[in-house]
Amino acid sequence: GAVVSQHPSRVICKSGTSVKIECRSLDFQATTMFWYRQFPKQSLMLMATSNEGSKATYEQGVEKDKFLINHASLTLSTLTVTSAHPEDSSFYICSARDQSKRVLGDTQYFGPGTRLTVL
Amino acid sequence: GNSVTQMEGPVTLSEEAFLTINCTYTATGYPSLFWYVQYPGEGLQLLLKATKADDKGSNKGFEATYRKETTSFHLEKGSVQVSDSAVYFCALTISNFGNEKLTFGTGTRLTIIP
To answer: Which of A8, A51, B53, B62 lies deepest, with the highest CB count within 10 Å?
Structure first.
């Protein structure tokens, strides 16, 4: 089946530094990728929709200058948390949409997530 | 807005027990409903789905029926196995093809003991 990888799986950084998280679709092309954030015991919250070759679309309340998204190719999207602070500590999950599929709900494949801890 | 409420976990059952994980939703529009499963160290995987009222989604022995009258999509399995231990997410979307935004529940951690 379709595989989506995320790197790194876990990162610990100091407050004020920037952290880049990569999301790759390994065996399919994805013009659209989604970035989610999950707090403990809470649901996945959509942060932004990443579109290859164009600007990302951010959900209401998500700071686009804080969470920079770059979707430079059909298989790679990156999320950069700029000047990270402890409140940015969370579990970040990406999904990639297989553009060749046309069945509702069967098109998103999820990465395993990245645990970010900001000290 | 759209929201999904599912029973809080964790849920611990013995092998071969009957499983129910409740899920209810609110939506502006006519949603499609999904159950995703996340095994340890892996990404979420689509387990089953239903796109209209009274549809029953099924996969790997799991079932869920789209109940419009009660706005519910409860997940059931008649006899669970240790390998079913995972986190289960109920979700909905009312988006069309091309930009399927999913709204998730909080997830329910299921542990099956031998």
So the answer is: B62
